[in-house]
Amino acid sequence: MFLIALKNELGLFDALAIGIGAIIGAGIFVITGIAAGLAGPALLLSLLISACIATFTALSFAELAAVIPKEGGGYEFARELVSPFAGFMAGWLWLLSNVVVGAVVSLGFASYLALFIPLPVKAMAVTACLGITLINYFGVRESGLVNDALVVIKLAILTFFVVVGLSAVKLDNFSPLLPHGSVGVMQGAALIFFAYTGFARITIVSEEVKDPEKTIPRAIVLALVLSTVLYLLVCFTAIGLVGYHELATSGAPLADAAMSESKNAATLISIGAIAAILSVLLTTLLGLSRLSFAMARNNDLPKLFANLHPKHATPYNTIVVFGILMAIFAACTDILRAVAISNFASLLYYGIANYAALKLEKPRYPRSIPVLGLLSCSALLLFLARDAWILGSTAILAGVVYYTIRKR
Asked: Which residues 6+ apart lie within 8 Å of 52 measured at CB?
C-alpha cells in the first residue's frame, strides 16, 4: 500500500537517547520548582512515588513492545489487544498530551533562553517549535543524531550541578520535611509525574529501531532507571542549596539554585537546560508525527498523515501540522494548567496500555505488574486539579464524537 517504508536506523544508544531525551527536560528544569511548592522538601518522596508508578507502566510497555513492535506504541497495543475504539482513544489521548507537552517544553526552553536573549518568552517558544519542525522534517536519523548530542550535553551538565552543589547542601533546608503533609506529597507526585512521561516515547518509533523486540524493552528500563537516579540527586542538591521556598517561586529553579554558589555555574546550568529541553521538544514532535502516521495508516486519522516524504522517508504532513499546533498552544497556554492537562491525558493513556498488557496470552512479567500500573495511574488522577478533569474530559468527548462520525 505504501511505496516508501520507514527506515529502521536506530540502535540501542539511539533508542535510549530518545527515552532519556524525552524524560529529562522541562520536568526537572522547570516543573521541579512548582512541585517543590506543593510537597516541600518531601519532593524527594513525590519523585519516588512517581517513579514507582512509572516503573509499573514502563514494564507493561516493555513487554508489549516486545510482542507488538509496531509504530504507534500504546495505540497499537490497545488496538490489537483490546479493541479498535480503545486503540483510537489511547492514540487520541497521547496526541492531546504531547501537543500540550510540546507547548510546556517550548515555554521552559524560552524561559532559560531569556536569561541570555532578552526577547518575549512566548515568541521564542513559538520559534523553537517551528525550528524543531524543520529538523524532524529531514529524517529520523538526522533527528536522532541531534538528539544524541543534546542528551550527552544535558547529562554532563546535570552531573556537574550535582558534583559541585552537593558539598554546599544545607541540611536545615530539609526541615520540616512535610510542610504540607501527605496530601502535598501526593499533589507533588501527580505534578512531577510529568517528568517521567517520556519513557513510552521509544515505543512510538518501533519500526525505526533495529531489533525492536530486544532493543526497546532494554532502552525503556535503562532510560527510566538512569533518569530516576539523576532526578533524586538533582532535586536533593537543589533543595539543599536554596530551600524549597525559593525553588517554588522560580521559573528557572536549577539556575537559581546554582546561582547561590556561582554565577558561572548558573550560566552553565542554563545552557544545559536549553539543551535538555530542546531534546525533549525534538522527541515530542518525533513521537507526535509517528503516532499520527500509525493512526492514519489504520484510517483513524486522515490519510494525508500517512504520506511519507519521497526523499527523507518521514511523515512530513504530520510533522508540519503538529509542529504548528505545538506553536499555537505555546502562544496561548500557561505552564501549570498545561502540565495538569498533559498528566491527565497521559495517565489515562497509560491506564489503557496497562489494561492491554493484561490481555497478553504469554506475558513476560507477573500479571500483578499491569494491575499495579492500572491502579496507581488511576489513583494519581485523583490528585490532579479540577481544570485538568474538565478540559481533559472535554477532549475525550471530542474524540468520541470524531470517532463516531469517522466510522459511520
From this structure: 376
Q: How many CB atoms lie within 10 A of CB 136?
A: 30
- pLDDT confidence bin for 86, thresholds 50/70/90: very high
Q: Which three cell numbers stand for residue 345?
A: 491525558
Q: Give residue for cell 510497555.
A: 61
What does the pLDDT look like over 102-119, one tens digit per residue?
Answer: 888 888 888 888 878 888
**Beta bridge partner(s), residue 237:** none
Helix (H, G, I), strand (E, B) or coil at 361: coil
Query: Tens digit of pLDDT for each residue in 29-55?
Result: 778 888 888 899 999 999 999 998 888
Residue 275 CA to its chain's centroid (Å): 15
Count CA atoms within 13 Å of residue 271 on its CB side: 12
List of residues 6+ apart from 213 with CB closer than 8 A = 65, 66, 69
Q: Cα angle vertex 14, ends 11, 16, to 5°?
A: 105
* pTM exceeds 0.70: yes
Domains of the chain, start order: 12-406 (1.20.1740.10)
Look at residues 368, 381, 275 and name the one whose alpha carbon lies nearest to residue 20.
Answer: 275
Q: Which three cell numbers stand for residue 51?
A: 517513579
CA-to-CA distance for 60 and 93, rounded, in angstroms? 18
Residue 43 and residue 260 in contact, taking contact as beta carbons nearer than 8 Å? no
